[in-house]
Design brief:
Layout (H helix, E strand, L loop, with lengths): L22 E5 L5 H20 L3 H11 L6 E5 L2 E10 L3 E9 L8 H15 L3 E7 L4 H7 L2 E6 L3 E6 L4
Parallel strand pairs: 4-5
Antiparallel strand pairs: 1-2, 2-3, 3-4, 5-7, 6-7
């Protein structure tokens, strides 16, 4: 797994939606574990509950297993913890495993810029960019707007790929 640079700006991307925000990504550590899980829960619990049901212990254990802090980045906005992102880098593709922003940081263009910067990184490496989204997650509309297309689906999720064509 490649470690992402500390700031979006270091990768050559800036926030267009609101240039007043300073977005930074940093490697998560053990001290972030509770913040990350609680932020995930605050953001995605209704969707997960709809898709598979919510069992607190199962979700907490699964979160740590599938999104270890070594692979998570903490998103900060103007120095405040805002959420997390996990991008899995494989040989021929990158997968957005998880992105979540606390409600106070949503609808400000932050998620869009982070996702588009990851799509650009994948494109520059000659890779495809994929994600899965729970069917009732409002973020599906965002992914549609950002150029993702549904390539498969199951009862609970859409499997999406970004159209990397210029």
């Amino acid at each position: 797994m490649t470690v992402l640079p500390m700031t979006v700006e270091e990768r050559g991307f800036s926030l267009h939606a609101n240039s007043m925000n300073t977005i930074q990504l940093r490697q998560a550590n053990d001290d972030d574990r509770e913040f990350l899980f609680e932020s995930y829960k605050a953001t995605l619990q209704p969707c997960v509950e709809w898709a598979w049901g919510w069992n607190e212990e199962f979700q907490r254990t699964g979160f740590c297993k599938h999104h270890p802090h070594e692979q998570l980045r903490v998103i900060t906005v103007d120095g405040k913890k805002a959420g997390g992102i996990h991008v899995e880098e494989q040989e021929t593709l990158n997968v957005l495993r998880l992105i979540f922003l606390l409600p106070t940081f949503q609808n400000r263009g932050i998620g869009s810029e982070l996702i588009l910067s990851e799509v650009t990184r994948a494109r520059q490496a000659g890779k495809q960019f994929y994600l899965k989204v729970i069917r009732i997650n409002p973020a599906k509309k965002l992914y549609d707007r950002l150029g993702f297309v549904v390539i498969n689906e199951d009862d609970a999720t859409y499997h999406m790929r970004h159209d990397l064509k210029d």
